[in-house]
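One chain given next:
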Amino acid sequence: TQNDYIREWLPYREDFLHILLDLEAPPLPRICKICQKDGVYRCPDCMHQPLLCTNCCRTTHASHPFHRIQQWTGNFFEDSALHMTGLQLHLGHGGAPCPSASANEAPPLSGQSRPTTAGKDGDQTKGDRQDTPTMDDDEWEDVDNIPLHLRPPVGSKHLTIVDVTGVHFVLVRPCQCPNAESYPLQLFRAKLCPSTFDKPSTAFTFSVLDDFLRDNVECGTSGMNYYSKLRRVTSNVFPHLVVDRYRELLRVARQWRLLKLLKWSGFQDNMNPSKDGDLVIFCAACPQPGINVGPTANLDESWKYTRAVVMDGNFKAEHMHERRPDDQVWLMDGRGFMVRNPPYQAYLKATPHITEKSSCNNHKAISQASASRGKLNSTGVGATACARHGCFYPHSVVDFQKGERQLNMDYSLTHALSYNMTGIENVLCFYDINCAYMKNLRRRIESSDLLHLPPSLRITAGIGMWHVHGHKKECYTRYSPLFIKGAGWVDGEIIETLWSTLNIVSASTRGMTSPHRQELLDFQMNDSNFMKMIRMADSLSRKLKTARASVVLARDAFERFNKAITPEQQRNWGRQEETALLRRVHDPSVMDVFEIQLKKAPTVHAVELRLLEKSPRQGVHHGAASWITRGLAIEEAEIILNIYRKDNGPNPSELKRLTIARRAEKLSADRSRFIADGRIYLRVDDEFERSDESDGRTDLTLGQDTLDDEDAVSNDGYSDSSLVEVFGRASSNDPTSPYLPLPSKFGSAYCKAKKLHRLAQMELELRMGQANDALHGLRLALADKAVIFRGVVRPATNYSMRTRAWQMIHSIDTSVKQCAAIYRQCRLAMISLGADSDILDRYQELQKSHLSATAAAFTQGAHDHRDSHLPWFWTMDIPKDTDSKSWLSEFYRIHWLRAKA
């Protein structure tokens, strides 16, 4: 482990420290390593930091002009610079002096330099600042106190060169032959990129530019932070005295990015007609006719040559308004991932934003589509990527002006689907809000003169596995990738992982100019695609191994289901599946066959909604249905908490005790609010409230030992008690008290006498809905348990599989306990509310034996199952003229279809 390695290092700690201190001293004798003369300079950047005389130091570093050297003062080594040794940098002729150079040129510098004065640098040009360090008033110090190696040389043509080793002043001698290239080109051929071109005074080495780009894409290092690092590399003690070349770095880095992309894309010059996205790379595994798909390939093999795309928006890539938006230089507009700016702006002006109301949940991408932020020119970006491998599509990333509007994403999608798509007719498209987005996509595109999609293109809509669970229940089977034939092992959420890479630089692009921001984001996305490409072989290999193992398990699970049903059911259900898959592109609702089709009894929420719609707008009963529903929810939460407390035993862990305490505290707060509101609905006056009839006793805890003892749910909570008694017991601090001031706690006779019969009737109807919910959950849990026993527990061949299977069984048993306890509570309340015989015949007493249906009873292939084999609640919602096994048949139909999917 890491700690073991550190322990191995500890005995060497003092020895290493002594060596560090020894390296600060000069060697003895202090002589030049080469000529044996007096050694003055040493180079920490050279191996073994040799001690050299002035001449040898200058000669040795002719090929290493950017090493940082130190000079012996007699007491210690202080920082120095190679230009102080007289080092010159010759351009052309392989680094040798130019034979055509003038003999009258000034001799190289030697010895100390003098500080320059502001405004007297003959090489000062527009675009580069003076070499004298700039200082604020509060940190001003005398120029004479600036260390010599930080002072620009005087009296010769020096060049300020920025390298990974810091900022250097170098005397540069250009080639003066008649056919020599211009000075900027000579510098560039020497791997020095000039910042200006009339009379260059600053240049950046290729190494420092590459290092900056790497730091930027990997670490998100901004230009300011990177140059601050270079200042500290130059002088860790006086970084503020190092000349400032931050703006020059930003400008040259933009040029360097473009040159690198042109080189990587195989351009010999930048004069050829460019096309959208031609400077960046795309996914190597997605089908691209003419690139990785041959001309003889049969593109009609729909799923083999289907493009899988995913769209999403990112609101961290903000951009502020610019000071001079008209004075911009675009270096690669539209040749990367960001769309070309003028056509996009023309599209936005010509396309009105139409707010479409969604029938699904109120997703932020829809509700905040028109949200405006006045200080921002762009609130974020929208992008399209390949859904399988996570590569951004070239020329498909758009800026948001407000929220995530459909018109923005339309532009992104249409341009993504026009990239190397010749002959491909099938697309699988994932988007967080596809249930609303895809409804009118064709209509929006056909109404725009600036967008185009081939009419023959089939787009299958999907929603990622994480987002689909935030939609309505119907969206799961309609848009989940699990039910899309040919989608394979894809979750539709891979673009979410790409934003983390892009967000590395998003903060630094917030205040940039639009062209600079576009270039930086393009470079970052190109690097993301490149990293995906070089790792794609390993990634696909791992996915293939996982898929091969998983498909065997899935096939075995389906075969077990298939054997348990009749041939007629296989044919009928197979036709349903085939029809749904064929029609889903035009009508996603056909995928509802993968959901249970039987009409369910009304739920508690449906009953509440019906009562609220017909309740009076004002008066004492206004909102009473919601108040009673809150009481039922509190009652359910208390039952679940008590079962959780019992299942964890008398000595639960600290974390579980904390969970219990938090849930109990929340329940106590909910009870207090409910009781306070109950005084209004039950008309408890002040005099009545002060009565002390209540004896403060607390009956037994509801929900505990529900399955161990059928009588654990007591009738004591449901008696003809008075308001004062019930309120007194309900107000106790015991969160497990059965007393909540609901009409069922007073009894039907008392409610009639006190004119609370309307509230009692409301509670009775809500109790029936609550019972329906509990029985529905009970049926699902028991059926799941039987299927797991039959398909997982029994076929398990090793300890690990059996352990996981039994963990699933125990989780289902907890759900069975909870549903059974809630139902028993409902039935007791119904009796207290005076439910008639028809209601009680429908909602029968739940026995312990009803909860132990065997797996054989759930097997569709078993012979001659009688109604008596199943408890009463399996058939209570089935019409009289329907097969009594319809509920189970429907359950197996869903499991069969989903297992096949």
The chain is about 40% helix and 5% strand.
